[in-house]
Amino acid sequence: MKAGFTGFGALAVAAGLSTFGAAAFDLPKVGVPEWFGGGANGESLAPGATADCPVIVNEDGSQMIRSPAGADSAAVHHQLSIKSTARECIVEGDHLTIRVGVEGDAMLGPVGAAGSYGGVVRVALRRTKDDSVVSSKTYRVNATIPSGAARADFRFLADPLIAPTVAKAQEDYEILVGFTDGAAAGEAPAHKKKKGRR
Predict the structure, then answer these.
(1) For burial by CB atoms within 10 Å, which of 42, 67, 118, 173 has the most?
(2) Tens digits of residue pLDDT in 118-136
(3) Which residues contact 73 (CB under 8 A, 6 or more apart)?
């Protein structure tokens, strides 16, 4: 297991930031479009749907958590990672409704064992002009790794994010998705450094 986990860790570091994110109405690898009422090709059937949808941003390090925290590869018990996201935006009169889907996995480290593992994922909408948080909610995610396996998936559809309709949503808002260490809902992230913007 050690060799496999080390290889996975290297891949996550090399590719995780480039693959995290989503195009509007499109997450073909995990089939999220049907959550939004779309078809197999990712098209949306929702009335009022618009391509002017804020990008998804993950703050540094928020796409993955390890236990123990800060452990090197040889000492990791388990790791949870966000692998894919999707979003859909619908204009409804004077407000914009944004739906976000998230998929990830739990993976055992060299000292890990089968069991149920979880973490808290925050989904929030932030104004770009002043970094104020318009809407924010946290979700508990869990994945059960059975005996003889090394990983298991999790996925969820967040409650809709609601914001006033603006001329250019992609410029005025951004969606934050990432693991949190328990920051209060609505609290702005402590740092501004961003990676994974798509």
Answers:
(1) 173
(2) 999 999 999 999 999 999 9
(3) 5, 6, 9, 109, 110
